[in-house]
Amino acid sequence: MSESKRVDGDLLAACRNGDPDAFEELVRRTQRRVFTLAHRLTGDRSEAEDVAQEAYLRVYRSLGGFRQDAAFETWLYRVVTNTAMTYLRHRGRFGELLEIEPAVPQPGPQLADRAVDRDEVRRGLAELSRGLRAVLVLKEMYGLSCREIGEELGITEGAVKVRLHRARKRLRDVIQGGTRHEV
Questions:
Q1: How far is the C-alpha of 20 from the C-alpha of 156, rounded, in Å?
Q2: How large is the average pLDDT for residues 19-25?
Q3: Which domain holds residue 150?
Q4: Can you give the pTM of this predicted structure?
């Protein structure tokens, strides 16, 4: 992340003091990443815009409670994730996350042995259920720990690990041209 895009303590302090220009700058510096995460979690551009807007409202209201124990961006990603999960649950789209895993033959060549382009990854992510996609995105793209993901999604760390394993396996199958699974 470039220095000009970093959210620093001075900017956060100005936001906490009610400076509207500072909050506008905070949004400007983070909006692309916030929208990208929201879009990856919802899979829909319009829903991602709604989630991003609601997340910024939550950030604005809760900024005074941010303790700076972790990086602001990590806290922000958690707010966006919580907002997206709440949004999807209220629309009945998150559904039951723990489905029975069908028997899947072992994949052929290892995924790491060949180049994978962005379109393949996007296609693979689109094939995953929202629950599996959320766990994979939060772990692989945003670096949250299994414990943190569990806290965000309201599931155990063990359930996160199971879903992460399933998500990786299904993503690998889709990218390698394997069998398509109902998720």
A1: 39
A2: 92
A3: 111-175
A4: 0.60
